[in-house]
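Anyone? Bumping this.
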Amino acid sequence: MSDFQLYGAAYLALSFLVSLWLWRYFKKETKQSPFVLDAMNALHPPRPPRRFESVREALVMITAVSANTVIWPIFVGNILTRRWLAYKAAPTVESTPLRERHEDLAEARGYLSERLSVAEIEAREMIKDPLSAVPSVPFGHLYVAWLAFKSRHVEADGFWAFSIEREFGDGNYRLAGYAVLDGTKVIDEFLTEGH
Amino acid sequence: MTMQVPDTLEVGGESLRMHANPLGAYFAMAGIASPFYGFLSANWRGYVGAWAILGDRLYLAELRGSDQNEQPIVLKDLFPGYTDRVFVHWFSGEIRCPNGERIQAATRHIYRCEKDRVFTVRRGVVTGHRIVHNEPQKPIQQELDIPKFLRKQQ
C-alpha cells in the first residue's frame, strides 16, 4: 500500500468518526424539552409522509455523508470556535451569590426577564373575560396544568418570566411563559404563548 | 394528503374557513393528550370547531368530535361548566381565513382563495386584522417531478 493510499484510508476513517461525532453533537444541540416539543408539534402538526419520502431522506443522508467526508474540518472548526466564544462569554458564577448569578444569567441569556414569586405570577396571570367564558383562577383554562407545574417545584428553585422571539421562515415565532431554574440551568417551563 | 375539513370562524355575521389550530395549542400547553380520534383521512384532528370573534376576543363556541370508541365529545366535556363558549386566552398567532373565489394553489392540498383575511391574536385578544391578496400559483416543481401515471387524479 502506497503512502497516498494509507493517508487516504486514514482520512476516510477519520471522516467516518467525525461524522458519528457530528451526528451525536447535532442531535444533542437540537434536543428540546418534551413540553416545548409537544407545543411545536401542536402548532405545526406532523403530516403523513409524502410520496418517495424515504427515498428522498436516503438521498439526503447519502449526500450529507459524502459532503461531510470532504468538508468536515470546516464543521469541526466552526463548532470549536463557537464553543470557545461561548466559554469566553460565560459569566464567572462560582464566587457570586445565587441571586446575582441569576441576574448575570438573565443578562447573558437574554430571554429570562425577571424572577418572580409564585404569588406574583398568579396575581399577574388572573384572566378576566366580559362574557365569563373563563374561570376566575390564575391561567384560566390552564389552571390545572399550572397546579401540576407548580407542584413539581419549590419556590426556592427560582421562577423566571421568559420570552423568546426569533425569526422563523417568513415570519417570527414567539414563546413566552415561566421557566424554573436549577442553579444556572432551565429545568422546566410553563408556556403562556407559543406561536 | 387529503385536504382537511377546516374549523369555522364566525366574525361580524360571516362564517369563514379557518386555517389555524388553537385547540392543538391548548392540548400542548395544558400538557394533555387530545381525546379526539380521527376516523377520516379528511379530518385527522378528529373534531370540527366553531370559533367566533366577539368584540375583540376569540372564543370557541362549539366543538364536535368523537373519541376512539366513537363516543361524542362536545365543548362541555373538554371544558366542564362551559356550554356556550370558552375564551381562547391560550392562543397567540395568526388565523388565516381564505375568502372569495378559489384560485389555483401551488399544491392541490392547499385551499387558496383570491384573498386571505388574517387575524392576529395575542393571548385570545385580536390585536390586528389585514387582508392579503393572492395570485394564482403554478404547481411546484416537486409535484411536476412525479411521473404523470403516479399523480393522484384531481
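Late reply, but here is one note on the structure posted above: Residues 61 and 85 of chain B are 4 Å apart (CA to CA).
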